[in-house]
C-alpha cells in the first residue's frame, strides 16, 4: 500500500531535497519550517533543482505539478493526518528534541517518524516519543533527488514492521537502502566525518592546499568529490555539529574537531549553502575558487 501523505520537517538543504524527491514520486508533502521566508526560499530552491534535473539528467517531471504537491507551512498541526514524517532539522539536540515532542502529540499513533540525522542516536529520538517502535533513522545523501542509496538505522526499539514499511517507502521514492544498527555516526558518517576532519587538519598544517587535497582523492581513489568539496556540500556547520556528537559519544580523541573547522564556522564560512567554505561559490565569482582559510 503506497504511503500518500508525508510530513517533511526542516526546509534546509536536506529537507528541500527530500520534499522535492517525494513530490516527484507522487507523494503529497507538507514541508514545515519556522518562518515564511525560509519556506519561500525552499520553493525557489526546489524550482531550481527541478530545472537542473530537466537540463542535465532524465526528465524530472512537470515543475508546476510537482510544486503543487508540496504544502509549505509553519503549522505543525497540518501533520495530523501524516502517514510518515521525515525530520531534517539542524544537528542540535535541543531543537530536535522539541520537534519530536510536538509531532508525537499531533500525529496519529500509526505515523512513523524517520530521523534524517548525521550522527545522533536513533534510540535517543525514540525515547522522546510514545511510539519508540515506530522511530527509525533514515540517513539520506545530498543531493537527495539523485542519490540512489539511503542508510536506514534500526534503533533499540524499532520494530521489524517499521523497518519493512520504511524500506517500502524508500522504494516508492526510487531508493535502495541498507539497514544498520544504531551507533553514533552509523556507518557512513562515522567514517566520512573522520576523513573530512583529518583533511582539514592536513590543510591547517600546510601539508597540501585545498585543491591539492581534493585532486588527490579524485585522482588516486576515483572519488567524484574530494573531502573538502564534500564538506562544503554538506555544510561546515553540519560537519562541526556531527564531529562534536561523535567526540562526545565515544569520548575518543580521534574525533576532536580541527581548530580550523571551528574557526571557519565561527567566521560564517559554511560552504555551498551560503556561498563560501573551502571554495567560493558566490555568483560574482567567475569560477569556483579556493578561499583563504589559514
From TrEMBL:
Which residues does the UniProt record annotate as the domain 3-hydroxyacyl-CoA dehydrogenase C-terminal? 185-281
Q: Can you name this protein? A: 3-hydroxybutyryl-CoA dehydrogenase
Which Pfam families does this chain map to?
Answer: 3HCDH, 3HCDH_N
Under which pathway is this protein filed?
Answer: Lipid metabolism; butanoate metabolism
EC number per UniProt: 1.1.1.157
Site location (Important for catalytic activity): 139
Residues annotated as binding NAD(+) are 10-15, 33, 91, 96, 118, 142, 273
- Is NAD there in the keyword field? yes
What processes in GO biological process is this protein linked to? fatty acid metabolic process
Spell out the molecular function terms from Gene Ontology.
Answer: 3-hydroxybutyryl-CoA dehydrogenase activity; NAD+ binding
Matching entries from SUPFAM superfamilies are given as:
6-phosphogluconate dehydrogenase C-terminal domain-like, NAD(P)-binding Rossmann-fold domains
Amino acid at each position: 500500500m503506497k504511503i500518500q501523505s508525508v510530513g517533511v520537517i526542516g526546509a534546509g538543504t536536506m529537507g528541500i531535497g527530500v520534499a522535492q524527491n517525494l513530490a516527484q514520486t507522487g507523494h503529497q508533502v507538507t514541508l514545515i519550517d519556522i518562518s515564511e521566508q525560509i519556506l519561500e526560499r525552499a520553493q525557489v530552491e526546489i524550482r531550481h533543482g527541478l530545472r537542473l534535473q530537466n537540463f542535465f539528467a532524465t526528465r524530472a517531471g512537470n515543475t508546476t505539478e510537482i510544486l503543487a504537491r508540496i504544502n509549505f507551512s509553519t503549522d505543525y498541526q497540518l501533520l495530523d493526518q501524516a502517514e510518515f514524517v521525515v525530520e531534517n532539522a539542524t544537528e542540535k539536540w535541543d531543537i530536535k528534541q522539541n520537534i519530536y515532542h510536538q509531532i508525537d502529540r499531533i500525529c496519529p499513533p500509526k505515523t512513523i517518524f524517520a530521523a534524517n540525522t548525521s550522527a545522533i542516536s536513533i534510540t535517543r529520538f525514540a525515547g522522546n516519543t510514545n511510539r519508540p517502535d515506530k522511530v527509525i533513522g533514515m540517513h539520506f545523501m545530498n543531493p537527495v533527488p539523485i542519490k540512489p542509496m539511503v542508510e536506514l538505522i534500526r534503533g533499540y526499539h524499532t520494530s521489524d514492521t517499521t523497518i519493512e514499511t520504511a524500506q517500502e517507502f524508500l522504494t516508492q521514492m526510487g531508493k535502495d537502502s541498507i539497514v544498520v544498527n544504531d551507533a553514533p555516526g552509523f556507518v557512513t558518517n562515522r567514517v566520512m566525518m573522520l576523513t573530512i576532519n583529518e583533511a582539514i587538519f592536513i590543510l591547517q598544517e600546510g601539508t597540501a592546499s585545498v585543491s591539492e587535497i581534493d585532486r588527490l582523492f579524485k585522482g588516486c581513489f576515483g572519488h567524484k568529490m574530494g573531502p573538502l568539496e564534500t564538506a562544503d556540500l554538506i555544510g561546515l556547520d553540519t560537519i562541526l555539529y556531527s564531529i562534536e556528537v561523535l567526540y562526545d559519544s565515544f569520548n575518543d580523541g580521534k574525533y576532536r574537531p580541527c581548530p580550523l573547522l571551528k574557526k571557519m564556522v565561527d567566521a560564517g564560512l559554511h560552504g555551498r549553502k551560503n556561498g563560501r567554505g573551502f571554495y567560493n561559490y558566490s555568483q560574482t565569482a567567475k569560477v569556483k575558487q579556493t578561499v583563504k582559510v589559514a
